[in-house]
Inverse folding.
């Protein structure tokens, strides 16, 4: 073990004890203490599985985890233990990762728009790998970090309207920027692109790799020693995504073999974020207030009044906290109702909002839920990416995170050190298929005992 993650950093659980069991125990304690604060449960074993799955699907690609996706300490410690690199967007993330002892050669300063002070910090702390896509960024680096190793970011989509916030230069502008880098004695070592997760199609990766190969040839022609390709992120983090992970990676492998065949001397990295952490985090939040819309009056004496209500619920966290992922490209996960017993209850049109007093803090609408009361708890799965769970330490109030890992996952992690193939074999032989334990009945009652292994 490398010493980044210790048993004291998480709760060790025995086999057969699931995320649902842990949530149940924590909710019982909170209810007894009358504590209604939202909290996360993080299944670190799920991240171990995702890492092994990534290495198996993309054996030539080294992952650099984007800290902005989830900078919680347990996640960073675990990924450092697994040997991943880290993509940092600013000085705060650089400081956080290096404070844990991650070496500078495993850090990629990946922001396309960097503050000069942050560039100087990276230079003084040995972080060399960076990216640029315009002359302004190139000049800042040339003045502040003469030892930087730069990746030229290119647009990976020929239709910018599909990714209106995408960074990167066009292929037409590559020659000018590569020539400018040569003039300013900036070392360009490769090409970077990032598709993101919006409307991801496997074929888009193939087109981006083809474009990167053209940019590589141009850089080599101009005298740059090109040897590094960054294929970015955008990999689906949950199984309900439109494009399945293995479908995407099969296309990537084919494109890499065609344009950057093994043995060509090019190292390949990627920045998978939500793939690693989205499914590992579950949020529990309680109802803090409710409102009921006036019932519609029947049109005549013969008509029976409808028993269906329109209900609005407020919970203890919102889009500026645990649900900040909704400000990006995510949809609110369907909530699960936590109740020990639950009779057959009619469903009502419901909406979820953050704390009262914030009219813009809308979490979800059009939900069909049984009638809930203040103090009831809702469970949200898949909130591990770009939510409060991702907040850096010291960034303000945030829900408590309980990290958990099974003894089997801990053993797998130990086996993984230098022996990923053996760890994969061990996982396959000892772990049952992932079963999250949240297969709720249509009435949203708590289900019977589920198949073990939510936490591997």
């Amino acid at each position: 073990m490398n010493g980044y993650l210790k048993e004291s950093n998480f709760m060790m659980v025995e086999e057969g004890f699931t995320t649902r069991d842990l949530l149940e125990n924590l909710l019982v304690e909170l209810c007894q203490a009358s504590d209604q604060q939202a909290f996360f449960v993080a299944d670190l074993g799920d991240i171990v599985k995702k890492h092994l799955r990534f290495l198996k699907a993309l054996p030539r690609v080294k992952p650099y985890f984007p800290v902005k996706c989830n900078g919680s300490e347990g996640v960073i410690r675990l990924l450092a233990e697994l040997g991943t690199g880290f993509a940092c967007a600013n000085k705060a993330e650089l400081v956080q990762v290096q404070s844990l002892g991650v070496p500078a050669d495993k850090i990629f300063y990946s922001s396309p728009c960097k503050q000069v002070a942050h560039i100087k910090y990276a230079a003084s702390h040995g972080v060399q790998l960076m990216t640029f896509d315009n002359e302004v960024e190139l000049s800042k680096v040339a003045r502040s970090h003469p030892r930087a190793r730069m990746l030229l970011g290119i647009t990976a989509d020929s239709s910018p309207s599909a990714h209106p916030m995408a960074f990167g230069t066009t292929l037409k502008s590559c020659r000018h920027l590569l020539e400018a880098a040569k003039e300013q004695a900036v070392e360009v070592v490769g090409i970077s692109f990032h598709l993101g997760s919006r409307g991801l199609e496997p074929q888009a990766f193939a087109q981006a790799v083809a474009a990167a190969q053209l940019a590589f040839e141009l850089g080599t022609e101009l005298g740059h020693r090109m040897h590094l390709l960054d294929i970015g992120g955008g990999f689906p983090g949950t199984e309900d995504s439109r494009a399945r992970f293995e479908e995407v990676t099969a296309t990537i492998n084919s494109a890499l073999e065609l344009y950057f065949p093994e043995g060509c001397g090019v190292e390949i990295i990627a920045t998978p974020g939500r793939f690693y952490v989205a499914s590992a985090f579950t949020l529990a939040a309680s109802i803090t207030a409710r409102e009921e819309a006036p019932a519609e009056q029947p049109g005549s004496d013969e008509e029976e009044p409808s028993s269906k209500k329109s209900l609005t619920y407020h919970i203890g966290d919102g889009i500026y906290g645990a649900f900040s992922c909704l400000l990006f490209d995510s949809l609110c996960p369907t909530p699960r109702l936590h109740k020990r017993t639950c009779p057959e209850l009619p469903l009502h049109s419901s909406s979820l909002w953050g704390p009262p007093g914030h009219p813009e803090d809308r979490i979800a609408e059009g939900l069909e839920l049984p009638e809930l009361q203040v103090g009831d708890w809702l469970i949200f799965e898949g909130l591990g990416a770009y939510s409060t769970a991702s907040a850096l330490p010291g960034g303000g109030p945030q829900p408590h995170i309980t990290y958990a890992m099974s003894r089997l996952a801990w053993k797998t992690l130990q086996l993984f050190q230098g022996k990923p193939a053996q760890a994969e074999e061990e996982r396959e032989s000892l772990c049952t298929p992932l079963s999250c334990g949240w297969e709720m009945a249509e009435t949203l009652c708590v289900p019977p005992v589920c198949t073990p292994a939510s936490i591997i």
Observations:
- The CA atoms of residues 162 and 199 lie 8 Å apart.
